[in-house]
Amino acid sequence: MINNYKKIVIKIGSSSIINSRNKKINSKWMEVFCKDVAKIHKNSKIVIVCSGAIALGSNLIKKNKSLRKLEDKQAAASVGQIELAHQWRQNLKKYKINVAQVLLTLEDSEVRRRYLNARKTMNSLLANEIIPVINENDTVATEEIKYGDNDRLAARVSQMIDADLLILLSDIDGLYDKNPVKYKSAKKINEVFKINKSIESMANSQTSSLGSGGMVTKIWAAKICMNNGCNTIITNSNKSKPLISISNENSTIFHAIKNPSSSRKQWLLNHLHESGFIKIDEGAYKAILNNKSLLPAGVIEIGGKFNRGDIISVYHAKKEKVAIGISAYDINEAKKIIGKKSKEISIILGYEGRDEIIHKDDLVITV
Ligand code: GLU
C-alpha cells in the first residue's frame, strides 16, 4: 500500500519502541522495522519521528519508579534521547544509512521564520539521503509551550517537508467505531475522507497504554495532513513487516483533500498555539466568507494576550470558531479600535495603522 509514496514520515509511539515489561528498547522490533526502512529508503525519502525518550530515561534514572516533577522528566528525556539516537544509528548503520537527530520545540513549527528555517535543514538532510530522527526537545520544552504528543509533531513535520504520507505506528491497527477492547462487535474503519464529529467521537473512546496521545491526537494529526495534501495511515506496529505489509485490512487510511490552499494559509490553518481570540458580528462574518478582510467595525469582543503578527482565533458571536488569522494589531491597540470605523483608527491610535484587524491574505476560514 505504501509503494507509490515519495516522502514518508513515520511516527513511532512509545508503545512500539519500548518494551512495556522492562521499559527498555524493544530491540527485536527495531531490527525488523529497520529492515523495512532500508527497503523503502531505496525509492522514497524517509523521516522518523520517534517517542520514548522520557519512558526510556525514567527507567535509567529511577528504576521502576514513576517521575512526577517536570524537571525530573526533562532530565529523563535527555538521558533517554541519547540512548534512542544511539539505537537508531546502530540499527541503520547495518544498511549503510546515515541518521541525524533533530529535536524540535513547538515554536519551530509555529513561528513562521523558524518553521521555514527548520524546513531548509530538513530538506538538506533529505537531499543527502540522511534519515532525520525527530523528537520533541522535551528537556527544554515546558508544559504550556509543548506539542506534548508526537502525533501532531509528526503532522507538522509532514507539512514542513511536503510529505505525501504520514504513518502513525501504534498498538492498534486503526480507528474503530467503538473501543475494541471493551466491545467485541467494534469494527475497524478502513478509509476516512472527512473528519467529522462522528469520527472524532470514535477516537474519544480509544486510548493507548504508554504514549501520551491515544487516538484523539492521531485524528488531529490526520486532520492537519489532510489539509496539506498528505495521506495518513494508522496501523499496528506489531507485524513481521511493519511497513511493507500495510494493507487495507490492517490499517485506517485518511485521504488528503484534493485542493489544498496556499502554503502560507495551510501553515496558518494547522497552527497549534493561538495567542488570543476575537468575536465578530454577523455582518463581519458574511464579509469574511466573501473573501473580505476583517475590519474593526465588526468586532464585538477581544481576549487573550497577543502582539502584532500573532495568530488569533475568530469566533462568530453566536457560533463556534469560524476562522484563524494573523492580527495586524496588538491586543491593547485592538481593544481601542473595535467597533470603530477604519477611518477613525488614526485619530484613536495617533498614527496611521492598517484598515483591517486581519487582512484577507492572513485569514483562513475554518467552517
Ligand atoms: N516526546 C515524548 C518522548 O519522547 C513522547 C511524546 C508522545 O508520547 O507522543 O518521550
Structural write-up:
The protein has 367 residues and is an alpha/beta fold. The chain folds into two domains: 260 residues, 3-Layer(aba) Sandwich (Carbamate kinase); 92 residues, Archaeosine Trna-guanine Transglycosylase, Chain: A, domain 4, CATH 2.30.130. Helix content is 36%, strand content 19%. Helix 3 packs across helix 4 and helix 8 runs antiparallel to helix 9. The longest helix has 24 residues.
Comma- or semicolon-separated keywords:
367 residues; alpha/beta; Carbamate kinase; Archaeosine Trna-guanine Transglycosylase, Chain: A, domain 4; 2 domains; 8-stranded mixed beta sheet; 5-stranded mixed beta sheet; 13 helices; 19% strand; globular; binds glutamic acid
Structural class: alpha/beta
Number of domains: 2
Stated plainly, the CATH topology of the largest domain is called Carbamate kinase
Helix content, binned percent: 25-40%
Number of extended strands: 13
Shape: globular
- Termini separation (Å)? 32 Å
Q: Which architecture of the largest domain does the CATH hierarchy give at level 2?
A: 3-Layer(aba) Sandwich
Bound molecules: glutamic acid
Write the layout of secondary structure elements.
Elements (H helix, E strand, L loop, with lengths): L6 E6 L1 H4 L9 H15 L3 E6 L2 H9 L8 H24 L5 E6 L1 H5 L1 H16 L3 E6 L13 H11 L4 E6 L20 E2 L4 H8 L9 H13 L4 E6 L14 E4 L8 H7 L6 E5 L1 H8 L9 E6 L6 E6 L4 E6 L4 H7 L7 H5 L13 E3 L2
Bound molecules: glutamic acid.
Summary of the model, kept short:
The protein is built from 13 helices and 13 strands.
